[in-house]
């Protein structure tokens, strides 16, 4: 990766991060994925007393087909239980296949349990914080949100599952969705600074297009 590509990717990474401070909430809502570090971080936050219960949401996505022995949510819940989270305090939503369904199905699950959290903590991968926030605000308006993620930098994030290229492709795709999804009714509008969008266009020209959607 050239210094120029790294700088543009870092700019988009920084934009996706919301940098919300941790606050006590009514519920920890974990959007599951292929990254078990999110499960571990969410469990630690729960064990530090930030909410009375934790819900894991996620079925099977493009990146997790065949990766886990069960759904993303069930796998993440098992990790949390192994770390000491009481199974009585864990809720599992194992059907969703995208961010919108994460919110819609979890909202239904909580309502069916008679739970009406007013302030929720969303736990997600760092580079998906902003889109998770925008989606939630559209699909479940009127709530207070704290959005957080494992405290990893752009250079610390890649691992055996996600290379630098993978991360850049997903970040670029998510930025495109932040721009186009409000018109489709999928998410709330987010202002995108000009320099961030210029970085997007440059990275697309360089071939980081694997996660883009057709216009």
From TrEMBL:
Q: Which GO terms describe its cellular component?
A: plasma membrane
The record's section on CDD domains has: YdcF-like
Which residue ranges does the record assign to the DUF218 domain? 26-149
User: What is the organism of origin for this protein?
Assistant: Photobacterium marinum
PANTHER family linked to this entry? DUF218 DOMAIN-CONTAINING PROTEIN, INNER MEMBRANE PROTEIN, PROBABLE PERMEASE
Please identify the protein, giving its name as recorded.
DUF218 domain-containing protein
């Amino acid at each position: 990766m050239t210094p120029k590509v790294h700088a543009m990717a870092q700019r988009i990474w920084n934009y996706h991060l919301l940098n919300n401070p941790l606050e006590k909430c009514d519920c920890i809502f974990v959007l599951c994925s292929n990254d078990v570090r999110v499960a571990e971080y969410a469990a630690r936050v729960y064990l530090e007393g930030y909410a009375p219960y934790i819900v894991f949401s996620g079925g099977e996505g493009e990146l997790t087909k065949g990766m886990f022995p069960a759904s993303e949510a069930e796998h993440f819940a098992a990790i949390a239980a192994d770390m000491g989270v009481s199974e009585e305090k864990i809720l599992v939503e194992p059907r969703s296949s995208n961010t919108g369904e994460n919110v819609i199905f979890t909202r239904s699950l909580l309502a069916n349990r008679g739970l009406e959290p007013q302030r929720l903590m969303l736990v997600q991968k760092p580079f998906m914080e902003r889109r998770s926030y925008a989606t939630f605000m559209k699909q479940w308006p009127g709530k207070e949100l704290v959005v957080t993620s494992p405290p990893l930098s752009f250079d610390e994030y890649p691992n055996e599952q996600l290379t630098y290229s993978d991360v850049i492709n997903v970040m670029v795709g998510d930025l495109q969705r932040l721009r186009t999804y409000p018109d489709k009714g999928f998410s709330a509008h987010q202002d995108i600074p000009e320099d961030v969008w210029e970085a997007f266009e440059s990275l697309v020209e360089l071939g980081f297009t694997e996660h883009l959607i057709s216009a």
